[in-house]
């Protein structure tokens, strides 16, 4: 626990530590770090539509064969996809995407 607190104190520009009593601590993001976090969330939300279009185009190029989800892991940063995009974006846009379990591994297919 002491290492964790020392780590938080090391990044005083990101975390604010508040003492509550003699043996209790609370921490939170500094206002600047919180603004940065909220800005990142806003940009991700704004980019989601573009990501859906990119995924659909990629899947359209391989209409006759679904793409293994593991292949997206290699392209994830190039496409700007979140870590678990198949649990987030693909689930929010079921009208376009479907994850299918095959004998080999799960794949991503277009539904429309």
UniProtKB/TrEMBL annotation:
Pfam families: PORR. It comes from the Eukaryota. InterPro entries: PORR_domain, PORR_fam. Residues 2-111 form the PORR domain. PANTHER family: PROTEIN WHAT'S THIS FACTOR 1 HOMOLOG, CHLOROPLASTIC. This is PORR domain-containing protein. It comes from Hibiscus sabdariffa.
């Amino acid at each position: 626990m002491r290492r964790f607190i020392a780590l938080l104190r090391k990044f005083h520009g990101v975390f604010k530590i508040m003492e509550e009593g003699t043996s209790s601590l609370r921490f939170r993001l500094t206002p600047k770090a919180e603004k940065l976090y909220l800005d990142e969330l806003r940009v991700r939300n704004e980019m989601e539509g573009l990501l859906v279009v990119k995924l659909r185009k990629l899947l359209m190029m391989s209409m006759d064969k679904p793409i293994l989800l593991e292949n997206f892991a290699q392209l994830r940063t190039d496409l700007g996809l979140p870590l678990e995009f198949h649990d987030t974006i693909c689930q929010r846009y079921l009208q376009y995407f479907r994850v299918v379990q095959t004998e080999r591994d799960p794949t991503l297919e277009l539904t429309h």
